Amino acid sequence: MSDLEKIESFIDKHHVLSLATSDGDELSVCSLFYVYEDQCFVVASSDDTTHIKHILKNQKVAGNILLETKEVGKIQGVQFQGSFTMLEDKNLKKLYFKKFPYAIAMRAKLWEIKVSYFKLTDNRLGFGKKIIWQES
């Protein structure tokens, strides 16, 4: 299994990510439901949120997904960096609405995060074990 496959295996077991955005000195963090496909997260959000206002000025974002546990030997989590843009891909839209059908009724606006960097921490492989993938 490749490093990217290990990272994606972890991502596929979860459905909520934390996203960090910025506009100058102003910072924001939010939680978003996601679907993931080919180094891309698809998320829904409204134009009036702080994080969307930020990304309209600065598309660079960072985030994480974690397994919540108190057992140090089971700690797992992914950190990522990428760019956040409006979603155009119709197949990815269908994928999101299939997983989260209630979003159709909400008339959710869909966005994509194209990931350029992943770091998976997986203490099951050894304390502090890191697996890094970076876009070529």
Structure write-up:
The chain has 136 residues and is of the alpha+beta class. It has a single domain (3-134), classed as Pnp Oxidase, Chain A, CATH 2.30.110. It has four helices and eight strands; from the N terminus they run H-E-E-E-E-H-E-E-H-H-E-E. Strands 1, 2, 3, 4, 5, 6, 7 and 8 form an eight-stranded antiparallel beta sheet that branches. Strand 1 (16-23) and strand 2 form a beta hairpin. The protein is globular. The relative contact order is 0.22.
Contiguous runs where pLDDT drops below 50 for at least 5 residues: none
Give me the CATH architecture, please. Answer: Roll
Distance between the termini: 19 Å
**Overall geometry:** globular
Tell how many strands the DSSP assignment holds. 8
The biggest beta sheet is recorded as: 8 strands, antiparallel
What's the average pLDDT?
A: 94
- Count of DSSP H/I helices: 4
